[in-house]
Amino acid sequence: MIRKRKSRLSQLKEIAVIAIPVAFQNLLSTTGSMVDTMMLATLGELTVSAVSMCAQFSTLFLNCYWGFVAGGTLFVTQYWGAGDEKGIRRSYGISLCMIVSIGMIFGILSVGFPRLVMGIYTNNPDVRAVGISYLRIVGWMFPIQSMTVAMSMLLRATEHPRIPLVGGILSVLTNCLCNYILIFGHFGAPVLGFRGAALGTLAASCMNLAVLVVFVVIRSIPYALEFHRCFSWDRSFASEYFRRSSMMLINECGMGFGNTMINAVLGRQSAVAIAAIAIYRTMESMIWAFFTGFSTAGSIIIGKEVGAGNHETAQEKTRFIVYLTSTFVFFNCCCVIALHVPLFTLLGLSGESFAICRNLCLAYCIIGPIRLGNWQHIDCFRSGGDPLFCTVVDVSSLYMLVIPSVYIAHFVFRAPFYVIFLLAYWDEPVRYCLMQRHLYSRKWIKPVTDKGLATIDTFREKYHVTPGYPFLDAVNRKMER
Fold first, then answer.
1. Residue 167: inside a domain, yes or no?
2. What pLDDT shows up at residue 398?
3. What pLDDT does residue 470 have?
4. Structural domain range at position 195
5. Do 386 and 443 form a contact (C-beta atoms < 8 A)?
């Protein structure tokens, strides 16, 4: 019993070393977003709604590049655990290329075709007009942010999480200061309103990247700026990387476009409901800020153990991290509910929009622990080498269950807003049961390193693990017949 307690404390310490800097960084970023919203709230609900719609496009950007971030994390953490420097460089180089390419595409869409982008999210002409002007400025951020994301992935995966934290702190401070000056015209600056917020966001992205580069140079951290040594991957490695990363890319892009379809329905609700959703997203992002700490810690810890060939340890730590995550998320949800009155008031909500947002946050106390428990499963499975199962479960549940029910409820039955909102999450308990079953099957442990491959057969024999998926095997047998 004492030994088990010491083991849990050791695991908590290991998680905390990575999770706390990442969670703190994301919490600061969320706090900065809340400050933005508070400043923009003085300009009216129309501005808040428009900027919220633009934020959904940024979320789609995250969904598109996150498959390569997850792929890079899978390979870098496993090679880091195995001590393979060549593997780390190759993994980082190919991830960097893909993430920056996506950043360029989103930048071109934002700056060159903002009317097309805003037409996807809302049919309100006033909201659309503000969003177009905002996107034309903030669109320059996407290529810069993509570089920052790739470097932060490498630094965290190689256990340097404090450097992205410092970059995040200075980025948030830059954002808040620029917003204060440019939105309201302080210190002799012109009054730019929401355009000032866009310029503040762009300046913050430049600051973040600059801080990462400076720290990497000063501390002589390997890999991050060694571009001449990061692009020497061969065909077999690239094939393996894209084979696994493509599943994550399909997952993230599929989820991103699917959520865009759901947000298109939510964006066609009343103006009061749209404003409430904007603040609800901010509250949700506070909870996600803490979750990303656990998510990143889980990915790095599990990837290292699988890459080093410690598969039983990876299984045990995954169970612990998943249940710890759901518990902590529930605690965070309760804290948001306890503080919702001053928070909503500061963010400019009142009357009906206040009541709607409160009810959405109450519902999230049940939804959140299940939803983020699912994502913690996914992050651990991916770093363990198995993105396929996650992609099949995620994409199929979204497109077969959630999207049809949301669209039918809205366009056919004209269902109330609360019904549509709950239908957007009703697949989460189903996914959680499937994730738990897969966790205990141990099939998700699929190393890519030589050390991990050397011990996997013994591990599978001990626990009678058969590689593959029963539902795919059944399909193959039917095709053969």
1. yes
2. 93
3. 58
4. 2-460
5. yes
Q: Do residues 348 and 41 touch, judged by C-beta distance below 8 A?
A: yes
List the Cα angle 336/29/223 in 5-degree steps.
Answer: 135
Count up the domains in the chain and report the number: 1
Residue 42 lies in a domain: yes
Secondary structure class of 230 (helix, strand, coil):
coil
Angstrom distance (rounded) from CA 343 to CA 283: 9
Residue 62 · residue 374 · CB < 8 Å: no
Q: Which amino acid is at 30?
A: T
Distance (Å, rounded) from C-alpha 292 to C-alpha 279? 20
Any domain includes 475: no
pLDDT < 70 regions, the chain: 1-7, 30-34, 468-481
Question: Which residue in 396, 366, 382 sits closest to 444, CA to CA?
Answer: 382
Measured between alpha carbons, how far is residue 308 from residues 84, 220, 296 in Å? 10, 26, 18
Amino acid at residue number 339: L
Q: Say what the pLDDT of residue 433 is.
A: 95
Which element (helix H / strand E) includes 330?
A: helix 311-338
Please list, residue by residue across 410-446, b when 16 or more beta carbons sit within 10 angstroms of its beta carbon and e when fewer do.
beeeebebeebbbbbbebbeebbebbeebbeebbbbb
- Cα dihedral sign, 305-311-314-316: negative
Nearest to 72 by CA among 208, 231, 248, 252: 248
- Give the DSSP H/E element, type plus range, for residue 368: helix 351-383
For 280, 343, 352, the CA distances from 340, given in Å and listed in that order, are: 10, 5, 15
The answer to whether residue 326 sits within a structural domain is yes
Question: Which residue type occupies 366?
Answer: I
